[in-house]
Each structure stands twice: as C-alpha cells, then as structure tokens.
Write a structure and sequence with these properties.
The complex is a heterodimer. Chain A is of the alpha+beta class. Chain A has a domain of 137 residues: Cupredoxins -  blue copper proteins (Immunoglobulin-like). Chain A has six helices and eleven strands. In chain A, strand 1 and strand 2 form a beta hairpin. In chain A, helix 1 packs antiparallel against helix 2 and helix 2 packs antiparallel against helix 3. Chain B has a domain of 306 residues: Cytochrome C Oxidase, Chain A (Up-down Bundle), CATH 1.20.210. Chain B is 67% helix and 1% strand. A two-stranded antiparallel sheet of chain B has the order 1-2. The chains are: A alpha+beta, B mainly alpha. Chains A and B meet through helix 2 and helix 3 of A and helix 5, helix 10, helix 11, helix 12 and helix 13 of B. Chain B: Pfam families: COX1. Chain B: Pathway: Energy metabolism; oxidative phosphorylation. Chain B: InterPro entries: Cyt_c_oxase-like_su1_dom (IPR023616), Cyt_c_oxase-like_su1_sf (IPR036927), Cyt_C_Oxase_1 (IPR000883), Cyt_c_Oxase_su1_BS (IPR023615), QoxB (IPR014233).
Chain lengths: 306, 647
C-alpha cells in the first residue's frame, strides 16, 4: 500500500500541494516528500515486526499447552528503540528549522530585488488586495508578476482567516490586531487557486480567490489599464463593501489604505497605532468596534524574529 | 423572546429529532411507570455511590453520545459526498461539525474512559470503592448535566457553530449572536468541574487505597495510566475552566477579554484553549494505552514487556504534552524560532510513544496470541495508530504544516490517532471487562463481525482524507465545486462512514443478543487474565473483595493462580460501606437549570438556581453520614451464591 502511495505522490500532479509553482512551495513540497519517505521507513520496521509477531506466535493447535516465558525487558533493546527515534527526530528537527526559516524569508536568489508589497485583508467572506505602490486595489483576485518577490501583508477586518495559495506557499493567519507577512515568488505564469483556509462562519466554503501570475510586462500593462479605466475606491463605498457578505471581482484605481490604514506590525493589539488615531480600520465601518486608541505597546510578539 | 427564537425551527431534520425525542421520553416515562421501576431507578442508580454503577452510567451515556456524534458525522459525510450537495445548509453544517467535535471528545471519549476507570481502578488496586464515593457521584451528575445541556441546544436555541475550538472573534457575541456558544461555555464549565473532581478523586484513590503490598511499581498498567491521566487533568482542566469563564463573561456580561475591540486578544483564547486542548488529547489516549497494555498482555499470555519503560514513557508524554500547544497554530506568525521550538517538542513525543509500540510488539514476542474481540481491537490499534503517529510527526514540522494546517490532511491525522487510540481502546476495554460487570461475555462472533466492519471501514473513511488535504481541500467546508476534483474521494469516504455505522450498530446489537443468549460465567475470570479485578466473582458484589488481597508482585492474580496460593488467608469480617445519597443527583439538576437559565440570560431564574446550588452544597458539607456495615454472614452467602460451590 505504501509503495503505491509513494508512486502516487511522486507522479501525481493533481495533488495541489505537491505541484509547486514557486520556490517557497517547492521547499515545502520537498520537505513533505522527504518526511513521507522517512515515515514510510518507520512504518515498514513496525509492520514487519508486527506481522512477524502475529504469524509466528499466534495460538495454534500445535502449540497448545505452551507456556510463554516471563520477560521483564531488555535494556539494550529498549535503548535501541529509544535512540533510533531520537536520531530520526533530530534529523527531522534540523530539516524543519532550516526549511521554516527558509520559507519565512524572501526565497533564495531573490533577496536583491525589491519586493512587491501587496496588502491582503479579509472581511466577512471576501479578500481585498491593495497595491500601495501602484495605488490600485482588487477584490477576490490578485495579479502578480512572475520572478519577482511578493510580500503579502495580511490582516483581517473581523474573524481570523488564513491566507493560502497552496501552489506558491503555505498559509498564514490574517488577524484584526496585527500584520503577518508571507514572502513568495511565482516562477511560472498561470492561474492558481487561493482561499481562506481557516473556518470563519457561514460563507467560509466560498471564500476563494484567483491568484494569476503573469510576466512582468503583462503585469505592467494590467496595472496601467486598471489605473486608466477602474473607478476610485471611496471611503463610503469601501465601508459598504465591508458590510456586504459576498461580492464578485472588483477593481479600483485607489486603495483603502489611505483612509483605513492597516494595523501595525508586531504589535499584538491596539490596532490604531501611533499615526492613525481616528482612522483605524475597525472604527469606521460599523458601530461595534470602539478601538482602544492609545497603543499600549504590549510587545507580546517582539521576540518573533521580525 | 418569541417561541420561534427559543425553539429551532425551519428544518425538517430537526422537527424529526424533536418528535423522536418527545416520543422516546414519553416511552421511558411510561415504561418506568408501567413496570413500577421508579423506586428501583432511584434506589439503585440515581442515588448510588458505588463506583461500578457510576462507571456503568458513564458508559451508557458515552454509548448514547457515540451515536449522537456518529449521526452528526454521517450527516457531514452525506453533505460532502458529492459536489454542490444541497442536503444541509452552511449554518446547519457548521453546527453539526461543532457538536460532533465537542461531543466525541468531551461527552463520548472522556466519559467512556471515566466509566472504565471507575469500574476497574478500585478493583485493580484491591479497594472497596474510590476515596470519595459521594464526590464521585457528584462528578458523574455534573458531567451528565453538562452533556444534557449541550445536547438540548440543537432543538432549543441553536447549537454552537464556531467549531469545537470556538476561536475568537468568531465565537464572540458579535460574529455568533445566537445562544449556541453560550451553551458551549456553560455546559463545558459544568461538566469540567466534574472532570476536575474525578481527577482529584482518582489520584487520592490510587495513592492511598492500594491493597497491602501493592507498591506503585506493582500497579497494573491501566491504573498507572489513570494516575498519570488524572495528574494531567488537574493541571490542564483549570486552564479550560478559566478560559470558558472568560468566554462566558465576554458573551453574557460584556467584558472584552477576547474581542477585537478595547484591547481584547483573540489569540489569547487560542493559546488558552490549546494549553488545555493538547494535554486533553493525552487525557483520552493514555488510559487507552493502559487498556491495550492489559489486553495485549492477557491474550499473549505474557507479562507486559518493559514495565518500567512503559511507566517512564507515560510520564515523559504527560510532561511534554504541556509543551506543544503552539503547534496548533504555527500559522499565526510567531516566526521561525518559536515554531522551531514547538516542532522539536512535538516530534519528541514520538520517542516515548515509539517505545510503547515496541514494548507492545515485544510483549507479543514468544507469546501465545489468541484473537479474541478485545485483542483484535488492540492489535488493529498498533498499525493504524502508527499511521496516526507518523503523520503527527509530519504535521509537527512547522514548515510543512503551513500546507497541512486547516486541511483534510489534519482531519485524517487526528482521526487516525483518536479512533484507534481512544475509540478502539474503549471498545476493547468494554468487551474485555464486560463479563466482570455483568457476569457474561459478549458474543465473539458478533463482536468480531463488528470489529471487521469498524476496522476496515475506518480506513476507507479516513485514508482518502490525507489525499484530499494534499489536493487543497480545507476542513469544515460544507460544499465544493465539481472542478476541484474532491468528489470521488469524498464519496469513498462516505461509503466508509456507512460501514462504520453498520459496525457500531452490530456492536450494540451484540449487547442485546448477548444479554439474552450468552451463557453466564461462574468463574469470575473468563479470559484467564492477570490483574486483581479478575479475582472477584462476576458480577462484582457491592463490596468488591470479601477480604482485601495481599499483593506480592506484579500480575498478582496470575501468580496466585499459577502457584495455587490464595490472595489472602484472612477471615471474612464485616465490611464498612458508604451509604447512598440523592444529593449529587439533585445538585446535577440544579446545575443544569443554572446553566440553562444563564444560556438565555434569564437573570432571576439564574439567581434562584444559583442559590439552590449553594444550599445543596451547604447541606452536603454539614451532613454526617458514617455509612453502614455489611455483616460477615451476608458476605459469605453472597460469595457462595456468585461462585457456585467453589468457596
């Protein structure tokens, strides 16, 4: 069964997670396949022993009256099956720490390029993508240039969501009181599924978006088109948008960041921050959230490696 | 409040459930009256402080909850069996997976384990009852009150719908304005008090009430596992209790601990929940390890291999279980160093767990293995749980978890851990100890049939989910489109779920069939087993041991049999027993109403129910009850009757 699993995994590109289109997802895919192979090794040892014990020592007519010996244990055997798992865990720990650091940072080979910053924020069951440099904003789809590092900055206007484009990178939470970051690069043009992976209520199942990777010139052209043709996003319209449960795709030639700035990085709460006393993202769009305006610098996450 | 806000309306499934609940309740009331069983019910069960009867009541509730949670599971599988199904709507689906999770963990697995430990632990250590029998009854009735409160939510007011982990802000009053999550907060608080009391009770029982000669390192492995489990309980459950209390304040009294505004921290809830939630996994799994140790050793006809390392590994697991909680949210953005730390602690748990697996395998080595029903479940546990274990190591790798988190891969993993680890264990223990409590074995043919249905269907149901996860299917998703390609594997999973259902129905049918037709066991030791509980007659008399056994080593009863020595040479004397009391039951009822009124924020009734709780507690505190004595002649008679002429 498990050999077939390996064959299936290695040959099967229908498994989205193992069909990466960028270096971060490739690192993760390699890590997953490596760990599966290690674990199959463990399973084989256990299964062989298991089958041996069950076939050899089952009660039969022929061994009726056989009285099994009294065995307290064997110190060397027990040391062996403690030590070998420790070695396996140690190997996996090294791999884990290395790959975790790798996928948290800008992918190797792209460090010198200036990343494209895109704010991805969720509200109800939709995603807003703000491009501060380009000054454009989209809803429920995101276009990105290939071969350029993208820095997604994630936050939420409500429940915790989890931003996930499995063919580019693993997921990360978007929360209302802090910014989290995901660094990724797309190396092939094409359309990819993106979604919220963290259950957040009634419309969760449909909270998907399209991530479309395109060459740099195509991307430039798309940005210019948007600037020329799309309407501006006004504060009123944005607030209305926030309160709508589901919308289709939308495109704007300005961002909501100007009137509704994102929470600060690394601070766990007091999303207003230093510069936004009357414009925090939560104060405006509905009456529920009276934000605590003075940031009390609860540096809960100051150790988190930013 | 209008009546249609009080009762859940508009869904034919729920109307059906309401009608059947009313009919079943009427049938029970009628049956009790017709057969004049009210007095029997009150005297023998509702007021009992006998650990065996309390254990039986726990197990009956757990079986009922297994079916409630199982129906939830079938509904979920039916809804996702094909793309774009229109069987359940999103809200209904969300309520069902929430109640499935809460019920299966807190109202099925835990009470099933508590039931087995109630019945067996005092017998294994040669005690007459637990240390605090009345407290034990309180534990049960608080659990029962909590479970009933949670279960009525789906017809009265609506069930919780924010997942069993109830993450904030989703579970806050702002995003979940129905009373559903009030039920969650209150019912778990009430049953949680019961759990905590059980933890204290069994620690004292095991530490103070062992038979003479039974040192800690001579205890049967199940008793060891219960001792360690209870230690985890008293450290972990206070965290949940406080988290739920803060949740209740947020939802009922307008505080802002976990909300988005005024400095509330949604992540604090996630941390508190999993500081309890991960040890909770071991609260249900460690006793399972104990059960398997007993059964494997009995049916391999060998002593447990590596006893000391079995104990040590459980101690290590229990300590590590408190150091891994953040692996439930690697994706919260703590950074690589924090995630690395929790990855390593999590993977470290694989080491002591592996030690246990190898010890079980070497218990089989040179044994003489007979494949009885309890042994089949125990043996099936090893390969299936190992898959759960190795996928657990895979999930522990923080980087890779960025791709598994929140997907069906995770769902597959924890079912591969919890079903063999907890469900197989309690079913195995149920078959194994059934004759001890009821005096006859369950039918082996039916038992094995149910086993094969359950073991095979389990894999058909959950193995496809590993692939669904890698295909990108998120958990808790009530529908998906055709293009995703999730359809075929989900259909396969549905077919497996039906097989599981058939298996569990066979299991219950076996109880009915065996009650009617199985021959009665007069020996008290039908499996030729090893621990002290088998030295008593079956069904176990109320006083357990006519004379307290003297223990000279591990597997005391086994060696007493081999060497043909009696476990004790003392004469039968009168036995001191605790008297029954109705107050724990009344306390449970009062707590139920307190919880119910608080769910709906009905303050005056809540205050009255709260005062009632305090009055009952006060009267219990000032009660003087010295119990009663069973005279020696009566004991001699009982023993002779139960054992035939052998005494």
């Amino acid at each position: 069964m498990f050999l077939s699993v390996v064959l299936l995994l290695s040959g099967c590109s229908s498994l989205t997670v193992l069909d990466p289109k960028g270096p971060a997802a490739r690192t993760l895919s390699d890590t997953i396949i490596f760990s599966i192979l290690m674990m199959i090794g463990v399973l084989v040892v256990v299964y062989v022993l298991y089958i041996y014990m069950l076939t050899k020592y089952r009660a039969r007519k022929s061994n009726e009256g056989y009285e099994p010996p009294h065995e307290e244990g064997n110190i060397w055997l027990e040391i062996t099956w403690t030590a070998i798992p420790i070695i396996i865990v140690a190997i996996l720990s090294v791999v884990t720490v290395k790959t975790t650091v790798a996928v948290e940072n800008v992918p190797e080979g792209y460090e010198s390029q200036k990343p494209l910053v895109i704010y991805a924020s969720s509200s109800n069951w939709k995603w807003h993508f703000s491009y501060p440099e380009e000054g454009i904003e989209t809803v429920n789809y995101v276009n990105i240039p290939t071969h350029r590092p993208i820095e997604f900055r994630l936050y939420s206007f409500g429940t915790i969501t989890s931003f996930w484009i499995p063919q580019l990178h693993g997921q990360k939470y978007a929360m209302s009181d802090m910014i989290t970051k995901l660094n990724m690069v797309a190396e092939e043009p094409g359309s990819m599924m993106g979604r919220n992976a963290n259950f957040n209520g009634e419309g969760f199942a449909h909270m998907e978006f399209e991530a479309l990777a395109m060459s740099a010139p195509e991307y430039e052209k798309w940005v210019d088109d948007v600037k020329a043709t799309a309407p501006e996003l006004t504060e009123d319209e944005f607030n209305k948008l926030l309160n709508t449960a589901h919308v289709g795709r939308m495109t704007f030639s300005s961002t909501h960041l100007e009137f509704s700035p994102p929470p600060e990085e690394g601070h766990h709460h007091g999303s207003g921050g230093d510069h936004s006393s009357d414009e925090s993202p939560d104060t405006e769009h509905d009456g529920h959230h009276g934000q605590d305006e003075h940031d009390n610098h609860d540096e809960q996450d100051s150790h988190d490696g930013h | 409040m209008k009546w249609d806000e009080f009762f859940v309306t508009g869904d034919p499934l729920i109307y059906g459930a309401m009608v059947s609940i009313v009919l079943v309740s009427l049938a029970i009331l009628f049956g009790l009256t017709y057969y004049k069983k009210w007095g029997y019910l009150w005297r023998e069960w509702l007021t009992t402080v006998d650990h065996k009867k309390i254990g039986v009541m726990y197990i009956i509730c757990a079986l009922l909850m297994l079916f409630r949670g199982g129906v939830d599971a079938l509904l979920m599988r039916a809804q996702t069996a094909a793309p774009e199904m229109k069987f359940l709507d999103a809200q209904h689906y969300n309520e069902i997976f929430t109640t499935h999770g809460v019920i299966m963990i807190l109202f099925m697995a835990m009470p099933f384990i508590f039931g087995l430990m109630n019945v067996i632990v005092p017998l294994q250590i040669g005690a007459r009852d637990v240390a605090f029998p009345k407290l034990n009854a309180i534990s049960f009735w608080l659990f029962f009150a909590g479970a009933m409160l949670f279960n009525i939510s789906f017809i009265i007011g609506g069930s919780p719908d924010a997942g069993w982990s109830a993450y904030f802000p989703l579970a806050s009053i702002e995003f979940s304005p129905t009373v559903g999550n009030n039920y969650y907060s209150l019912s778990l608080q009430i049953s949680g008090i019961g759990t905590l009391l059980t933890g204290v009770n069994f620690i004292v029982t095991i530490l103070k009430m062992r038979a003479p000669g039974m040192t800690l390192m001579r205890m049967p492995m199940f008793t060891w596992s219960v001792l360690i489990t209870c230690l985890i309980i008293i450290f972990a459950f206070p965290v949940l209790t406080i988290a739920l209390l803060l949740m209740m304040f947020d939802r009922l009294f307008g505080s802002q601990f976990f909300t988005m505004a005024n400095g509330g921290m949604d992540m604090l809830w996630a941390n508190l929940f999993w500081v309890w939630g991960h040890p909770e996994v071991y609260i249900v799994i460690l006793p399972a390890f104990g059960i398997f140790s007993e059964i494997i050793s009995t049916f391999a006809r060998k002593n447990l291999y590596g006893y000391t390392s079995m104990v040590m590994s459980m101690v290590v697991i229990s300590a590590l279980s408190f150091l891994v909680w953040a692996h439930h949210f690697y994706t919260m953005g703590q950074g690589a160093m924090v995630n690395g730390f929790f990855s390593i602690t999590t993977m470290a748990i694989a080491v002591p767990t592996g030690v246990k697996i190898f010890n079980w395998l070497f218990t089989l080595h040179k044994g003489r293995i007979s494949f009885t029903t309890p042994m089949l479940y125990s043996l099936a546990f090893i390969p299936i749980f190992t898959i759960g274990g190795v996928t657990g190591v895979m999930l522990a790798m923080a980087s890779a978890d960025y791709q598994y988190h929140n997907t069906m891969f995770l769902v597959a993993h924890f079912h591969y851990v919890l079903i063999p680890g907890a469900v197989f264990a309690v079913i195995a223990g149920f078959h194994y100890w059934f004759p001890k409590v009821f005096g006859f074995r369950l039918n082996e043919r039916l038992g094995k049939m149910a086993f094969w249905f359950i073991a095979i269907s389990f894999n058909v149901t959950f193995f496809p989910m590993f692939f669904l996860g890698l295909q990108g299917m998120t958990r808790r998703t009530y529908t998906y489109s055709e293009e995703t390609g999730f359809g075929p594997l989900n259909l396969l999973s549905m077919i497996g779920a039906i097989g599981l259902a058939i298996g569990f129905i066979l299991l219950v049918y076996n109880i009915y069939w065996s009650t009617r037709y199985q021959p009665r066991d007069k020996t008290g030791d039908p499996w030729d087993a090893r621990a002290l509980e088998w030295s008593t007659p079956s069904p176990v008399p109320v006083y357990n041991f006519a004379v307290t056994p003297k223990v000279k080593g591990r597997d005391a009863f086994w060696f007493a049999k081999k060497n043909n020595e009696p476990l004790s040479d003392e004469k039968i004397t009168k036995i001191h027993m605790p008297s029954n009391t109705g107050k724990p039951f009344v306390l449970g009822v009062a707590f139920f109403f307190l919880g119910f009124f608080l769910v709906f924020s009905w303050w005056t009734p809540s205050i009255i129910a709260g005062i009632a709780v305090l009055i009952i507690l006060a009267t219990m505190s000032f009660e003087r009850d010295h119990g009663y004595y069973i005279p020696a002649e009566e004991i001699v008679q009982t023993e002779q009757k139960l054992r035939g002429d052998t005494v």
